[in-house]
Amino acid sequence: QKESMDSDIVIIGGGPGGYVAAIEGAKQGAKVILIEKEELGGTCLNRGCIPTKALVRSSEVYELVKNSAEYGVFNSSSSYDFSKIIARKNDIVNELVGGIDYLLSKNNVTVLKGSGEILDKNTVFVKEKNKEITINTNNIIIATGSKAFVPPIKGAASKNIVTSKEMLNLSELPQKIIIVGGGVIGMEFAFICNALDTDVSVVEFAEDILVALDEDVRTEIREIAIEKGIKIYTSSKVEEIIDTEEGQSIVVFDKNGTKGYITGDKVLMSVGRVPFYGDIDLEKLGIDLNEKGRGIKVNSKMQTTVDNIYAIGDVTNIIQLAHVASHQGIIAIENILGKDVEANYEVVPSAIFTSPEIASVGIHEKAAMEQGISVKTGKFPFGANGKALTQGERRGFVKIITEEATGVILGGSIIGPHATDLIHEVAVAIQNKLTAEQLINTIHAHPTTAEAVHEALLATTPKGAIHF
Ligand code: FAD
């Protein structure tokens, strides 16, 4: 059965980039068609942000139950059922996918389930079940996301190798896991598995885990990870994976010329993600890749080298975060609908769901120094914050960077309880060029972990913090 449709905007890919763009476009009155070949919500909702955080929560609850005596609560037997943890995660994902479906239909977005193919700059083709649909459209947004990168090392075909996608659907956790790559995804899984009693080794090529973080934060999380029993091998290049007759795998790595070997039941490859072009023939369409050849090239309006075709989210490989994909989606829609707006990445908070959590925004102390900016640094430990103590979460700190001459807030890093929520006060301040003084003059409720932010702000001034 053949059908044809007309639209203002066709969006290919229903992740946080694509579905947010679709809703925004429809809200502004455009006729929008969203094409998704798998599940609405994309990687983020089905295989990324949300399912990992469901697992983080289960692992935290289990850890809390194991250590409940500290709170005067006794629990004679603590155990977990991984299949129930996965089932809970699936329920949350399904609820949210259903929610997106509802929102799209409420906003009159037409959703087509199939693989979108761009025939030319005004024609998109999709096969939905046994219907062949040709869409005539004024604009196209490519939001096809990314996929895990598995490096072509010897033994990479081992059946024990998994990516984050498979990790989220294991029937049980392995006794021993080796995580190759100590970035955000790798370290989140390291803390989840460790809390759930799996023996964890992380092998990282760089000189440290989570290299993009502020140095103090990195040191803190590394120390906490090691205290919890996570083994970390840095400056270590994985060379080969050898399967044993007993069904395990040996990861062979080179650390400054010396070989190391770790044996485990599963090997999680978390060395990065590469753009996924959704089988769209970019070359034929005249859509260029960026300078590195990884990711669709876009200008600040999210326009590709073909003027009515836009690209947003992980496929552009600018910053691989869900909230950046959504921001870019809105920017693309605004430009398509006649406004003149540019994507701005100066104030993008990043959140890492290790235990404790980590968040940062703006510039780090070292980067400021490298850029020749004279800064003041204020630091306040959660160990001196009443709320954190009542929560039993005394590790970590808030660190704020201000411009020395003006007191304008330039950056913040938080490691500790609710870090990923607390960071937004700092983000709003940076976005609006607020000074430390302005935030200090805002009364912070007591007792809250937000008081640690207040105190770190005070610590950037000559007066210093009150409680430390
Ligand atoms: P995606 O979410 O990847 O969506 C792309 C969609 O396009 C997919 O649904 C795909 O099926 C569809 N598609 C592809 N080709 C076609 C085609 N031809 N036709 C139709 N449909 C097509 N980010 C955060 O901000 N916070 C986190 O805590 C976080 N945790 C993560 C944890 C993990 C384990 C992973 C893997 C990622 C995590 N991310 C996190 C990153 C986040 O998931 C991505 O940045 C985000 O999903 C990118 O959104 P997107 O819309 O660009 O692409």
TrEMBL record:
Keywords: Cytoplasm, Disulfide bond, FAD, Flavoprotein, Lipoyl, NAD, Nucleotide-binding, Oxidoreductase, Redox-active center. FAD binds at K53, G116, T144, G145, S146, D314. Disulfide bonds join C44-C49. GO terms for biological process: 2-oxoglutarate metabolic process. The keyword Flavoprotein applies. GO terms for molecular function: dihydrolipoyl dehydrogenase (NADH) activity; flavin adenine dinucleotide binding. Its EC number is 1.8.1.4. One of its GO terms (cellular component) is cytoplasm. It catalyses: N(6)-[(R)-dihydrolipoyl]-L-lysyl-[protein] + NAD(+) = N(6)-[(R)-lipoyl]-L-lysyl-[protein] + NADH + H(+). The active site is at H446. This is Dihydrolipoyl dehydrogenase. The chain holds residues 103 to 570 of 572 of the full protein.
